[in-house]
Amino acid sequence: PRLFHGSTVEQVAAGGGDDPRADGVMTDCPLLGLSITQADCQAAILYDPVNHALANIHCGWKGSVANIYQSAVLRMRAAYGTHPADILACISPALGPASSEFVHWRTELPEQFSEFQHRTNYFDFWAISEKQLIDAGLQCHHIEIARIDTFRDEDFFSYRRDKLCGRHATVCALLENKQFQGRP
Fold it and tell me: Within 10 A of 157 (CB to CB), how many other CB atoms are there?
């Protein structure tokens, strides 16, 4: 999709045409690759093993503020009948708590994020994402967060660290139902 750091999640199908302007894409079409790009932002894959549906989400701080995870869960529920408690979620390496400095947080972040401020101007967006997913109905043991800081781990690209344009890509796809046979 063409990212704009919001909370829009679009459904895509095989032969769907143009890339949607969204920060998340979802499908129940087997073998359709869902691709997003990210730098220090989170990429999250949400999988519904009961209805065999998948979402790939780009979540930066603006996506957290807009609660894109809640939007994704609601969209999956409406489109595929997904029950939030069935969703399995994994979150990619992203900017970690020790590197998530927001000098203008009072104007950029909502008041409820202040509980995730672990020192002056630094926020734990991994914990924010986990809370948002749990609040959306996911079970805590269905959430896996890589907890790898792209800023501190030089094996990963970091715009904040390097001040250069670049991206990681996260691509996922469903197996065909006959290949799936109940495996998550």
Answer: 17
- Residue closest to 19 by CA, chosen among 32, 10, 6, 29: 10
DSSP string, 128-156: HHHHHHHHTT--GGGEEE---BTTT-TTS
Instruction: Render 35-64 in DSSP notation, one character per residue.
Output: EEEESSSEEEEEEETTTTEEEEEEE-HHHH
The region of weakest confidence among 2-16, 87-101, 134-148 is: 2-16
Q: Do 15 and 147 touch, CB atoms closer than 8 A?
A: no
Backbone angle region of 147, left / alpha / beta, with phi > 0 → left and psi within -120 to 50 → alpha: left
The Cα angle at residue 167 between residues 176 and 184, in degrees rounded to 5? 25
Are the CB atoms for 52 and 177 separated by under 8 Å? yes
